[in-house]
Design brief:
The complex is a heterodimer of chains A (about 180) and B (about 110). With about 180 residues, chain A is mainly α. Chain A contains six helices and no strands. The chains are: A mainly alpha (about 180), B alpha+beta (about 110). The complex binds copper (II) ion (CU).
Chain lengths: ~180, ~110
């Protein structure tokens, strides 16, 4: 769990690409790997949102970012409680590492932007990012999850993140 | 003095028994809306002036019940409830500020 916390703090930013590279995984992820991927994905979005709250001057964008922080932190809290209960130690893996690398690249790009250009890039990326995470949850992570409670939590997470994807699209529409 | 104390005692009793007595006395009801899996269930409710709408949030994330006309803004923290007493007749669409796709309507009759 310590490694995970350190990773969470180290994560900064988001990603531009819409694929998580999960399709390339030859073997199905295990529950500890799934937990690590989900937690990593959550933290990436929180870090991105914290940056947006600081940088954006647009109220709709700031509100959206605060919604992301609130919900993703709630999901993480549930996830950590479940992992503790199940005594599952999240396990780092290639997908988590790919997520972090892409997030770092995106963050580096966003750090160069300000004002309306930043708002648009951030929100567009939120649409793409949630879409990618949702696709991964639906096609890979949820089917692969062995533990019923983990599967349940991922399913609830999917529902929440689908809402975020819609919300991001709505904000993106307002920015145009 | 005695009458005053008596009245006060009656008030205290009424307050203590409020949950039970109020519906009978005022004919006001509490209408419960479940907030679950990012939905208001049922999404549409009908109430009378003086009724209370109570939202019970069963999700582990925070929500709000916010009137489109800003007439009320009820915070619904994770696994907590919130309520509003409707005072005017009309149709009041509402939504969740945190998840604007979550929508509901209260229809209030006289
Ligand atoms: Cu909500």
């Amino acid at each position: 769990m310590n490694t995970l916390k350190r990773l969470g703090i180290g994560l900064a930013g988001l990603m531009l690409t819409t694929t998580l590279g999960l399709a390339a995984e030859a073997t199905k992820p295990t529950d500890p790997e799934i937990a690590h991927i989900a937690y990593t994905a959550d933290n990436i979005d929180i870090q991105a949102a914290e940056h947006a709250v600081k940088v954006s001057k647009n109220k709709a964008v700031q509100d959206f970012a605060r919604d992301m922080i609130r919900d993703h932190e709630a999901v993480n809290k549930q996830a950590l409680a479940l992992l503790a209960k199940l005594k599952v130690e999240p396990k780092d893996n290639a997908t988590s590492q790919a997520l972090v690398n892409q997030a770092d690249a995106t963050q580096a790009h966003l750090a160069t932007l300000k004002g309306a250009a930043f708002d648009k890039a951030y929100v567009d990326n939120e649409v793409a990012y949630h879409h990618a995470v949702n696709t991964a949850l639906e096609t890979t992570l949820i089917p692969a999850a062995q533990n019923a409670e983990l599967k349940d939590l991922l399913t609830t997470g999917l529902q929440i993140f689908k809402g975020h994807e819609d919300h991001a699209r709505m904000v993106a529409g307002e920015l145009k | 003095m005695t009458a005053g104390r008596g009245r006060r005692r009656a008030c205290v009793l009424a307050a203590l028994a409020g949950v039970v007595l109020l519906p009978a006395m005022a004919a006001a009801e509490t209408i419960t809306v479940q907030v679950t899996k990012f939905s208001f269930v049922p999404a549409s409710v009908t109430a009378k002036v003086g009724d209370t709408i109570e939202w019970v949030n069963a999700d582990f994330v925070d929500h709000t019940a916010t009137a489109a006309n800003k007439g009320f803004d009820v915070k619904l923290p994770a696994n907590k409830s919130g309520s509003v007493t409707v005072k005017k007749a009309g149709t009041f669409p509402y939504f969740c500020r945190f998840h604007p796709m979550m929508k509901g309507t209260i229809t209030v009759k006289k």
